[in-house]
Each structure stands twice: as C-alpha cells, then as structure tokens.
Amino acid sequence: MSDRKAKLTVGDKSYEFDILDGTVGPSVIDIRSLYAQTGLFTYDPGFTSTAACDSSITYIDGDVGELLYRGYSIDQLAEKSNYLEVCFLLLYGELPTAVEKEEFESRITRHTMLHEQMHYLYRGFRRDAHPMAIVCGVVGAMAAFYHDSTDITDPEQREIASIRMIAKMPTIAAMAYKYSIGQPFVYPRNDLSYAGNFLNMCFAVPAETYKVNPIIERAMDRIFTLHADHEQNASTSTVRLSGSSDANPFACIAAGVACLWGPAHGGANEAALNMLRAIGTPDRIPEFVAKAKDKNDPFRLMGFGHRVYKSYDPRAQVMQETAREVLDLMGIENNPTLQVARELEKIALEDEYFVTRKLYPNVDFYSGIILDAIGFPTSMFTAIFALSRTVGWIAQWKEMIGDPQKKIGRPRQLYDGSRRRDYVPLTQR
Ligand code: SDX
Predict the structure, then answer these.
(1) Is the shortest distance between the CB of 300 and ligand 1 below 6 Å?
(2) Neighbouring-strand partners of residue 304
(3) 46: alpha, beta or left, given left = phi > 0 and alpha = psi -120 to 50?
(4) What does the DSSP 8-state code read for residue 427?
(5) For position 333, what pLDDT does the model report?
(6) Which of 300, 356, 381 to mutate to test the pocket of ligand 1 (most atoms within 8 A of CB)?
C-alpha cells in the first residue's frame, strides 16, 4: 500500500481511492469500493487497463521486452535451466536444491501414465479430430478418473492434482497425436527426460526403437520453458475465473485449454506456420503485408503483435535462435519457411503501419518452424503450447485458491439493451 491516493470527481462529489504498489511494474488504483461509494462501474472490455489480481509468479515489462518467472529472466532460464526445474520454480517460488529437484522429477516421472480406462475415451473420437479437441475433452474427463484429487479445499489433493496435470499432459497430447495418425499409443518411459519422453511417445513405433536426439530434446525442453507461464493472459485468466467458483482443477485446466485454442491466442502458432506456407516465397510477402494493413480485410499477420509486448517478445528472440540450431542440425538451414519468416519480419519491422502500432514477432512466430522441423504436424502445435502452459495455469490456480481474499469472479456490464416492456401476445406481433 502506498500513501498516495487517486482522486475521482463525479459531479459535485469527490472520492479518494488507495494506490497500491507492487514490487515492480505499474501501481494500481484500488477501486473495490467504487460501486458502493459512487454507484458507478468501471468500463474496460478486454481488460486493457485492469489488474484482475495480485500475483508473485510472472512479471512482464512489455516496453522493454522483459519476462521474469519468479524474478528470473526467461533468457537465463532458457539457456541455463530446464523445464522441470522451471516447473518447480513456478509452483513453489524458488529454484530447487539438488535434493528437491531429484525428488520433484521423480514424482512427476511416476505420474506420467494415464488410467488405462482413458484409452477408451480416445476411441470415441474421429481419427481426424483436431488434437486440441481431444486434449480439451480428455483433460476435462480426468475429473471422472482422479476423484481423490478434486477437493480443492484439501491442500494435499491440490498438490497431487498439480503433479498429475503436469505429469500427464505430455501423455495426453502424445496419445492425441498417435490416435490422429492411426498408430498405437506409446507408454511413458521412466528412463527418459520429460522432453525425451514426450518425443518418444510421439515418434516411437513398436516396429523399431526411437532414438532421442539430444539437440532436438534440448530444443523441445526449451520450447516448453518459453511457454510455461505468461502472467494474466486470456487462458490463464480463464483458469482463474473457472477456479474462483471452486470448480475442480481438471475442469479449470480444460477451460484454459479451450481458451488457448483460439488463433488470437495459443492457436496463433498453427496459424502462423500455415500463413508462412501460404506466402510460400519472399516475393509474395508484400501482398500479405498489404492484406494485414487493409482494414476491410480480417487477415492479420499471425505471430505478430501482442497486448503487452510493445517491443520484441523475448521468447521470440530465443525461439529464433533455437530454430536456427534445429534447422542446421536437420541440414535444412535454407528452409524456405524460415527464409520467408525472416524476410517477413524484416519487411514488417520497417513498415510504418507495424512500427507505429508497435507490432513485433511474438512467441508464436518462430515456434512453428521448429516444431515442423522436428516432425510435428501444425495441428499439434497448440497442443504442445497447452502442454507447456499447464504448469503456469496450475501455479496461478494454486495461488488464487490459496488467497485468503479469494472471491468468485463476477464482472458487471454497461447495459444498453431494452428498457422494461410488457409481453406481446403472438397474435399481436
Ligand atoms: C499469445 O496475452 C498473452 O500473454 C498471450 C501469449 C501467452 O504467452 O499467453 O503471449 C500468447 O497469445 C501471443 C499472441 C498470438 N496471437 C497472434 O499472433 C495473432 C495475431 N495478433 C493479433 O491478433 C493481436 O496482435 C493480438 C490479439 C495478439 C493483440 O491484440 P490487441 O492487443 O487487442 O491489439 P489490437 O487488436 O487492438 O490491435 C491494435 C492495432 C489494430 O489496428 P488499429 O485498429 O489501431 O488500426 O494493431 C493492429 C490492429 O488491427 N494489429 C495487427 C496485428 N495485431 C494487431 N495488424 C495486423 N497484423 C497483426 N498481427
């Protein structure tokens, strides 16, 4: 709390509201008593100027392109840490000691299998179902299989639900992929890393052993880390709002998966690669840039722009470097899609329309190029984003549930519909 006050004058009345300071970043005006004092609501569709909660998990400075997980910068974590260590950090607030890290990895590893009965859930879907439709359904169905971790008032059940979600999402996503290509499910293996196990479950076949390539494994793990959390984005806010009604954790994460699927959000990685492929060659870039600038054309450059980042998304920077590493390894350094992406980025960042609107590549612009090079179909890109973001959703959900000031989220509205009117009988309409 600061001793600063915000003053509001409405007609001949004046009101004062406390200004609350965080550790870093914008302070907030505490307007919780606004309606009681003034009879007025604030109006902020899209929440461009609204802090919906306080949190100590992730901090973003969109102006300088900074992203911190519990105070540690994303570029340092991407280079020096790994996904399970980042999971521990996001969940518990500190980097683990060697003993804590080993214990945590062991707990996650031993929860990677799905209840065998859930295999029948997959058989109910069409083979050509989008993997996100399957993931959304299966995650929600976890509440029907893991009843002993649905009581959100029990801290132990909250903890085991968190471990189960993080551990089982790679299995759920990999099974969605295998099902879509008509191959048998591959069980998790405890002798592989988190990323290696996911790659094995996706690409191993009974007919031959799959050898995890360490560079691909490292790139996969880095992609998981880069997507792990991102403050109060649309899907995280969905998880928080769902959790505010005391819904079980699996239902809340399923809601987050559903929201992430949208092409304006996590679905942008699939849309961005499809866009780069549609452009095809650098000479067609001006045609697409013109479409993106045309107000009468709904087309947008997918993987560009961000609500918060008004400079280069720090994740996109790391992703671009990783793309180059993976493509070099695969011997496809002159990959036409990467060439189009880099030329498009260059042209857009010199174009007045994008410069004035501070539209830069975001996390989704390069990730698809890496996932495509590793061998994933575009339909799996958002499922991989959801897998990565599960720890962020869970950490934010646990923080909200553990908040003694927790209240059910219930926004109001500016009503501009009909005034009260009487029913009109059918014969008089
Ligand atoms: C993610 O919030 C998060 O943290 C999300 C995320 C996470 O980790 O959780 O970072 C992940 O979702 C990244 C964003 C992925 N989405 C895309 O790449 C889709 C393309 N981008 C846009 O749809 C858009 O940039 C948003 C949705 C990301 C942000 O939209 P805003 O903040 O609501 O901005 P806006 O739509 O009001 O746009 C401002 C202006 C508009 O033009 P004017 O009305 O001022 O003339 O910029 C234009 C927009 O038309 N604009 C674009 C554009 N993005 C914005 N024009 C062309 N191409 C684009 N991509």
Answers:
(1) yes
(2) 361
(3) left
(4) G
(5) 64
(6) 300
State whether the beta carbon of 292 lies less than 6 angstroms from ligand 1. Answer: yes
Tokens of 251: 């239902």
Rounded CA separation 337/339 (Å)? 5
* pLDDT score of 176: 98
Catalytic residue among 230, 306, 313, 372: 306
How many C-beta atoms surround the C-beta of residue 176 within 10 A?
26
Quote the pLDDT of residue 335: 81
Q: What is the pLDDT of residue 338?
A: 86
Rounded distance, CA 59 to CA 24, Å? Answer: 8
Contact 364 CB / ligand 1 (< 6 Å) = yes
Here the tokens at position 378 are: 């575009």
- Ranges of residues in the chain with a pLDDT under 70 are 1-2, 333
pLDDT in tens, 200-244: 999 999 999 899 999 999 999 999 999 999 999 999 999 999 999
Give burial (CB, 10 Å; 0-12/13-18/19+) of 69. buried
Q: How far is the CA of 296 from the centre of ligand 1 (A)?
A: 17
- Angle at Cα 217 formed by Cα 182 and Cα 236, nearest 5°? 80
Out of 221, 229, 313, 364, pick the active-site residue: 364
Question: Catalytic annotation on 265?
Answer: no
Question: Residue 70 corresponds to which tokens in the numbers above?
Answer: 């519990």
Measured in angstroms, how far is the CA atom of residue 257 from the centroid of ligand 1?
A: 19
